[in-house]
Structures are given as structure tokens and as C-alpha cells.
Amino acid sequence: MFKTMLQLLLLYLAVLQGAAAQGISVSLSDNLIVIDDTRRSGSIDLVNLGEDPMEFSVAPAKDASSVVKSAEPMLRWSPQRTVAPAHRSVSLRVLARPAANLPAGEYAFQFNVTATVQRAQGNTRVLEEGKAAKEQLIAVSSPVVPVLPVLVYVRHGMKTPLVDIEPLTLTPDDKDSLGYFRVVKRTPNTGFVGQIQVVERDSGTVLSSGRLHVGQKGADAKVTMPRLFFPAERASLFCLKLWSQFPGEGEPYAQLCD
User: How far is the C-alpha of 8 from the C-alpha of 29, rounded, in Å?
Assistant: First the structure.
């Protein structure tokens, strides 16, 4: 897929795979939550893919450099700490309670989900020489603690942020990419979260599809088209479609064929 989508795919794989080292395997159902005036809450699943119980903890990220205006004061989330049995998941719910006098705009908050395996050790207490207690004495935590980031947007009293599509730019000297569509945010200091599709203009065949996320501090993004999926002889037969939410619903709000 194109560069932006490749970045998203790599991020998705990182979230999906979570951490598989030393017997730990966890994932998130998503790493983005969007809350607005019609949806005051959102949720994701914390998934334990391993053989042992997993303790999940949720806390604010220490580095919030990607956030322009913090949503932390208005957010509540639950649970803050929970244990998921082996091969099970638990739901994390985030609720926004904006103050009545809160200025309109987009607020954001990043928190980290950490996962610690709870593994019962086989050590037993020696009662006397040659005898041992039957029960396990203690459940200890693995030293490996994966950290999975989650970003929350709270859009208060504002319209959904949009991006505009610029014409396809061909890159004949790039051996990997046929070219790219550039998308530019209409409103600075807001995040865009939507669905994109690249389709064949004549047949309508969907060649690639996925989520596009442009952070609050970003201004634009390139939707690149790898030559592996987009042959050069069809360079003038592509359309980019945009939806303002993910997954997209109904008709796209923007489309450009080039």
C-alpha cells in the first residue's frame, strides 16, 4: 500500500502483535478513539493472546508532545487496572465530560496501556525435609512490560475536521512508488481521522483501502502508490476517495480522479 497506509499498517501490526517476547502476547482492538458532541464515550478492547493471565494498566503518557490542547481534565476512563484471563479480552471505556463553559475546539489526550503477565511460579514451600506444600505460593510479574499508546480526540462544539485532495503527482525516478496524492488539512491544530480508498476510475475496483490519520500538529500527508500495486501504464486511471470518519459510511465527502 501507499506510504501513509504503510505507516498505518506497521502501526496496526505493532498494536496487533503487541509484545510476543518472553511469553507475552497482547493487543489492542484500536489505538484511536474519537469523541464528539453526538458520541460522548468510546471504547476499545484490551486483548490477552497469551497462556497466562495479563494485568493491564492505563495511565497518562509522559510524553504528550503531539497534543495541542489537552483533554485530560474532562476525561474519565475505566478500568484503570484490570486482569484479563488467558485468551480473553476486557473493554476499556473512555467518557468525556466537558465543562459548560469549555471553548469549542478539538482536545486530545494520549495514554499508555501497559501489560504485565501474571505467571504462577512452580516454587513451593518446604515444610520439612522431603515434604512440600501442594499450593502455589505466589504469582509474580514478568520483567517485560509492553507499552501500547492510545490517542483520544474530543471534538467539542465543532464540525468534523476535513482534508482536501491535491492532484496526483507522478514520481518516475522513484523505483518503489508510482506517485502520490497529497492531502492538506483545512483547519490547523486539529486531527483528521477518516477512511481512504484508491480505486480504478473506470471499473470502480478498490485497489487499496484503510484509515488515514493526520495528527494535530501535522499539516498534510502523502497517500503514496507502490508500483507493486499500481502499474505505471494505468497512472491516469486512479481516484482517491475520502470519508471523514473511520470506518467510512455512505458516500465519500471528497473524490479526485487523476
Answer: 14
